[in-house]
Amino acid sequence: MPWLHTVTLLLGFYLISDINLALATDPVDLGRSIYEKGIGRDGREIGAVIHKSISLKGAAIACIGCHGSDARGGGEAFVQAPDIRWLNLSKPYPARRIAASSMSYDQSSFSKVLRTGLTATDRRLDPIMPRFDLADDEINGLIVYLGTIDQPEHTEQNRLIILGLLPKSGQNTLADALDSKLKNCPTTENGSPITAIDMLYFDTPEDAMIKLNNRLSKNMNALVLAPFLLGWEQQYVEAMQHNNVPTVLPFSVLNPPDESNWVFPFPGLESQILALLKSAKAEGYMQLRIYSEPKNSLSTKLAAVAAKMASTYGMLEIINNSEAIYQKNKIAILWLKQFDTDQINQNSLKDELALIPAIFIKPSLAIGNFQGDSLQKKYIAYPYNPKIAGSSVWRTPIDVWAGAVCKFLSLVGEKSISRNKLPEILQWENDFFLYDKPGLDLLSNQVFIYKGIKYLQ
Ligand code: HEC
């Protein structure tokens, strides 16, 4: 189904107001603590199994003991510990071991090697290298720390840091689904590595900004990739205004707010509304009625935007709910609350057209499934084409976002992308493309409108 989760879930996120501040654990500090002392999150001693059956804890298995304080490895032991600075591990052709296969690590293969001892090419490491019981955020901390560790030839300041920003797991099912897809980006056809994201997990928007600023204060040569911003877009944009760190592929249902440095945004609800109004106008609809939810701030805000657009674009005359509908004009109805067939059946007229942004329609009423209602026409706006060309497969928002993010990460691995020099178009899966800095009009042209027609019997 195109929108897995109904509007209640999505809008619910916008209504969260009571938020408590949580203590921020900086991933770099967490990574250093594990690396040097074997102390993980919340002060726990990390555990590991060495030589297949010996369980050890804490300092005894701290990475520093074998890989050295500079993570360059070496040592006198029979099996030498390799250089595990992240830059080295994530290189396509690292010279970590003589005759080692030339496969590089990303987030998921790094987790695998630490937990199971199987390398990116499924070679089993010598049993002297411990198999660790590390959690995802602890592994993430290690990646971040190994990326910052002393590297004369590539200091951290020169390396573009890619930060992610997602709610902690269990808070939002969409965010969890996105997180798991991003951990499993497919490898590119030419085998180039998928760059790792330094993922920051937050409790609340306040917590997110503390973590993000903490990380940025150590290195501003960064970009924020696919931050999960549902409901706190404005707060985020204001907090990011003092730096010029770009936000790539923001996860939001809105257009880029003014003053935002957003790159590759999907068309938000504002552009979807504009695209719907344009197509209604093109079909000769002259009057517009807006159904909104007075108690919902997103819905009322969008209603105001829609009314303004209708007059700015000289398109449709707004009629309010109490006015009688005159049969002489064709009337379009813009749904900015959950589309409701009951209301339609009571009030509908022959020449009515329902304009519905996809998040306001139940998956069960999605394309092609309009049984049981008498409305003649529906136009549904999607931020992307929800159906794979020539097949009946549906794309979910998570599929589409993750596809774009994985493609972006592979570009970072292949090309010399810098914070100030991002591509102008992001294209993936043949039929998808996004512009770097689209305006409202360009975004509205990117909207996909499904025209569903069901004739009255
Ligand atoms: C007791 C010594 C020891 C400790 C402690 C240790 N390692 Fe290792 N590690 C090794 C050795 C030896 C190898 C190489 C084994 C091989 O090549 O078969 C290795 C290999 C690795 C590799 C694979 C690199 C490659 O080239 O494929 C990674 C990644 C790694 N260690 C990370 C860590 C991290 C992170 C920690 C701490 C959380 C750690 N190690 C703690 C000894 C150790």
How do the strands and helices of this protein lay out in sequence?
Blueprint: H1 7-15, H2 27-37, E1 47-50, E2 54-57, H3 64-67, H4 86-89, H5 107-116, E3 131-132, H6 136-148, E4 161-167, H7 173-183, E5 198-202, H8 205-218, E6 222-225, H9 233-240, E7 247-248, E8 262-263, H10 269-282, E9 287-292, H11 297-312, E10 317-318, E11 331-336, H12 341-347, E12 352-357, E13 377-382, H13 397-414, E14 425-428, E15 432-435, H14 440-446, E16 448-453
Parallel strand pairs: 4-5, 4-6, 6-7, 7-8, 9-10, 9-11, 11-12, 12-13
Antiparallel strand pairs: 1-2, 1-3, 13-16, 14-15
Helix pairs in contact: 2-6, 5-6, 7-13, 10-11, 10-14
The protein binds heme C.
Structure description:
- The protein is α/β, with parallel strands linked by helices.
- The chain folds into three domains: 8-23 and 157-266 and 396-427, 3-Layer(aba) Sandwich (Rossmann fold); 27-148; 269-382 and 444-453, Rossmann fold, CATH 3.40.50.
- Helix content is 32%, strand content 15%.
- It contains 14 helices and 16 strands.
- It has helices spanning 7-15, 27-37, 64-67, 86-89, 107-116, 136-148, 173-183, 205-218, 233-240, 269-282, 297-312, 341-347, 397-414, 440-446; strands at residues 47-50, 54-57, 131-132, 161-167, 198-202, 222-225, 247-248, 262-263, 287-292, 317-318, 331-336, 352-357, 377-382, 425-428, 432-435, 448-453.
- The strands form four sheets. Strands 10-9-11-12-13-16 form a six-stranded mixed β-sheet, covered by helices on one side. A five-stranded parallel β-sheet has the order 5-4-6-7-8, with helices on both faces. It has a three-stranded antiparallel β-sheet with strand order 2-1-3.
- Strand 1 and strand 2 form a beta hairpin.
- Helix 7 runs parallel beside helix 13 (397-414), helix 10 packs across helix 11 (297-312) and helix 10 crosses helix 14 (440-446).
- The two termini are 28 Å apart.
- Residues 1-24, 93-102 and 152-157 have low confidence and may be disordered.
- The structure holds heme C.
